[in-house]
Amino acid sequence: MQVPMGIKLFQPLYITTTFLIFLSLILVVPGFAVDPFTEALLSLKSEIVDNSNSLSDWILPSGSTETISACSWSGVKCNENSSLIIGLDLSVKNLGGVFSENQFSIFSDLVDLNLSHNSFSEKLPVGIFNLTNLRSLDISRNNFSGHFPSGISNLDSLVILDAFSNSFSGPLPKDASEIESLKVLNFAGSYFSGPIPSEYGSFKNLDFIHLAGNSLSGKIPPELGMLKTVTHMEIGYNLYEGNIPWELGNMSRLQYLDIAGANLSGSIPKDLTNLTNLVSLFLFRNQLNGKIPWEFGKINSLSSLDLSDNFLSGPIPESFSELKNLTLLSVMYNDLSGTVPEGIAKLPQLDTLLIWDNLFSGSLPKDLGKYSKLKYVDVSTNYLVGSIPPSICSGGVLSRLILFSNNFTGGLSPSLSNCSSLVRIRIEDNSFSGDISLNFGKFPDLSYVDMSRNRFSGGIPADIALASNLQYFNVSNNPNLGGTISEKTLSLNSLQNFSATNCSISGDFPPFGPCKSLMVLELSMNYISGIMPQSISNCQNLVSLDLANNNLSGQIPVGLASLPGISVVDLSHNSFSGSIPAKFGSSSSLKLLNVSFNDLSGLIPSEKSFKAMDSSAFWGNPKLCGTPLRPCRGPNGLELGSRRTQKLAWVLITSGIIVLAITAAVFGVLYFRRRGQGQWKMVSFSGLPQFTANDVLRSFNSIEEATDMVPPLAGSDCKAVLPTGITVLVKKIEWRPERMNAILDLITRMGHARHKNLTRLLGFCYNKRMAYLLCDYLPNGNLAERIRMKRDWATKYKTIVAIAKGLCFLHHDCYPAIPHGDLKANNIVFDENMEPHLTEFGVKFLIRLNSGPSTARVGNEAGEIERAVKEELYRDIYNFGEVILEVLTNGRLSNAATSIQNTSKEVILREVLVENDVVPSSSVQEEIKLVLEVASLCTRVRPSDRPSMEEALKLITGLKKQG
Question: The Protein kinase domain covers which part of the protein (predicted)?
Answer without folding.
Answer: 669-959
